[in-house]
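Contributing new records

If you add data, match the layout below exactly. Sequence lines come first and carry their own label; structure lines follow with theirs. Keep one chain per record. Anything else will be rejected by the validation script.
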Amino acid sequence: MVKKLTLPVLAVMLLAFHGRTLAAAALHNGAGLLLRPHWQAAAGEGGFPACGAGAAPAAGAWIERALRLNPQDERAWLLRGRAAWLAGRCDGALRDWERALSLNPRDPAAWALYLAAGGNGLQPDPAIAEGMASYFLFLGDRSQKAEQWEDALQW
């Protein structure tokens, strides 16, 4: 005889099997919300901030907790790189974005951050480069479709 699973039982089972991953995701989502206004203010109309253009110390603590819970959290590595970039730790940001790319080498957002920051130790595979060529970049209320991914990053 199979008993019905209630919502609380399902929640407990989910937390038991995926608790650390879910907690890490919640932390990196919170960190992203804390970091976003600092990144946008530093970026201004240029779209990509200069290294050392600001800081978001509260976000850093959330990101570190997320990475302690799940060191394979690609999004947390991306956010850690953004926080490092804003705080002026440019080499650390590039290392964090390289780590994110090692976890998911097909993420166009990770490639955009890495390449826009001047990272040149890695190159996207042709499929990603082609996808980035048709990527839309949004800067404020403007958008432009770039024909080449290099142009997209410079724009």
